[in-house]
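re: ur question from earlier - yeah i can do the single chain one, its not a big deal. heres the input i used so u can compare w yours
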Amino acid sequence: MDAKIQDRNKLAGHHAPESSAPQPPGISVEDTDSDETIATDADRHAAESQMAKLLHEGFESYRAKQLDQAEQLFEALLTLAAAVKDYHREERAYNGLFLSYYARGQYDRAIDCARRWLESTRAQGNWQGQTHALAHWGNACRHLKQYDRAIVYQQEALAIAQDMGELDSQIAILNNLGLTHKAAGDYPNAVIYQRQSLDVVRQVGDREAERQVLKNLGNSYYACGNYTNAVDYYDQLLRLSYANDDYSTANQVLRSLASACRHLGNVQQAIDYCKQRLTVTRALKDLRGEEQTLGALGVAYDAQGNYTTAIEYYQERLTVARLIPDLEVELQSLSSLRVAYYALGNYAKANEYARQRESLVGETQDDSDSEGNVAETTIGVFSIDL
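and the output i got, formated as tokens:
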């Protein structure tokens, strides 16, 4: 899954600054007495307070993944905002509902929400709201593999954002158009839109969005087999991640860099990236990432005929596999050790690891056919979806 950029404070579940919503005309003292005027003001302030509370609690529940509660709060907000014609909070309610349905993977409900949202914003002449509703609708269609429809909605959203000069929205929509084309297998257009997104994001100076776009560009080039360009964008992402002490992203991109370098036949560079990743995974206490990296290092040295060093990494991987614990990885590590010792001519050690594996699975391996059967942990390309 790739990184989907949300328009800051608009397409994401963050609280945008509250704007002053349209209010019903005030009641003149000539039309009613002072007590009724006070009651009307009190009702209006009570509604304002209630809507602010529903909005805050709705997004708090959403962030806590309490989606049933979040949806109830957003529905209540939608009803109240519509009643008092507070279009700003009505849009925020639609946004919250969409995000909750989207998080559940309920894309049909998300599309219905986006449709109602779009109808509402069109009735109000709210062009910014139309941009957000269309962009969301396109994202949901992408997940349903309705790529042509997704592109239509995202292109319409992009046209409005460009007309209004909304750079944040353009970054998000261009990026997500790239994701749609990539999902459809149209890598050239995926790259075109993501590079446009990168141009705009650098104009704005949004470092977080830049990291996401660089990640997606690297993934698009990787997916179409252009490993040289993939390495270029992954390397830019790695430098930004280190500069921002973002070691979680560094962990992921180092894995991708090692994989791309292996495809390019640059084994030593792949090993260097794996060693960097091993340091990062240990700092993060990421046992899964550590065992993957140890396995990849073992395979790399094994392929070079450096069986002694390969064995060191396979041994460490075996230890981590037992800490996790992960029986499948433990079996792979035992097989790798058996084959490596066999290649060294140390048949006693090879048989020792064969017996350990046999005790776990109850079957015997024939070492006479063992050449080339090293259990390899593939270093795959990473991906993220918001």
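Residues 34-63 form the longest helix (30 residues). not sure if urs matches, ping me
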